[in-house]
Amino acid sequence: MMVNIPFQKDYAEAYDFLYQDKNYESECDLIEEIFRKFASAKIRTILDLGCGTGSHAIPLAQRGYRVTGVDLAEDMLQQARLKAHSLPTGQLAFLLEDLRRLSLPDQYDAVLMMFAVLGYSTTNEDILAALNSVSRHLKPGGLFICDVWYGPAVLRQRPEAKEKTIRTGQSEIIRNASGTLDIFRHLCEVRYRLRHLQDGQVLQEAEERHIMRYFFPQELAFFIRQAAMEQIHISSFEDLARSPAEDTWNVLVAARRL
C-alpha cells in the first residue's frame, strides 16, 4: 500500500543503509565553512530542522556545538536517538515537532534545513511558515543554511527511474524510485518502493510517496526576505565557489537574520 506520509517505520529503519554512501562529515565541513565565511559571532548553538536520523546533528554535536534536532517523523527520531546514545547529556537533544509550528524558548546562532527539507513544504503558505519558524528561532544576525532542489536543473534534467541495492550481510535492501513533475506548482512527486530480501525472499515491502517542492533563485530569495532574512549565498551543493546551473540539482543556500 502506498503511504502518503513520508519516513514511516520501514523506510526509517532502512534510511541509513540507503544513504551510507552520503558523506555527512564532508557536508558538515561545508556547513562550518559557511560559518567561518559569514558568521558575525562564534557559532555555538544549532537548531537542525528536519533532522531525520541525526546524520548532521550528531557529527556537529561531536564537533562541540550544542545541537537541537527537530523532526515530524518519530521513527526517524528513534534511529537518531539510538545513534546518539554516547553523547554527553545536554550536547544534543531531539524533539518531535512540526517545524512550521515550532515555538521553542531559545534562539540559536544557526538554523539548518539539510537534505532538501524545505522542499517538503509544498505550498507558498507552508514555505513561509517554515521560514518564519527559522527566523523566530534565530538570534539577530544568526545564520540559516539549507539545500534545495534547483528548479532550472530539475526542468532540464527531469526525474529518472532509479534502482538502488544495498547488501547487508545475508540480506539486501532494494529501493526503486520514480518521479513525475507538476510544473505549474513547482512540485516533483517521487514514488519509492522498498523491499527487504533475504535469500531471494521478500521479508518486508513498503511504498511511500514524497511530494517535493523545487525552487527558482528569485522566488527563493523573495521567500527568505519575507521571513525577515537576507539571502547571502547560493551555490552548487558540492562547491561553494560554483554558481548554480542547469546541471546542479541541489544548491546550497545561506541567509542571515535581519
Automatic annotation (TrEMBL):
GO terms for biological process: methylation. The keyword Methyltransferase applies. One of its GO terms (molecular function) is methyltransferase activity. It comes from the Bacteria. Gene3D superfamilies: CAC2371-like domains, Vaccinia Virus protein VP39. Residues 46-142 form the Methyltransferase domain. CDD domains: AdoMet_MTases. This is Methyltransferase domain-containing protein.
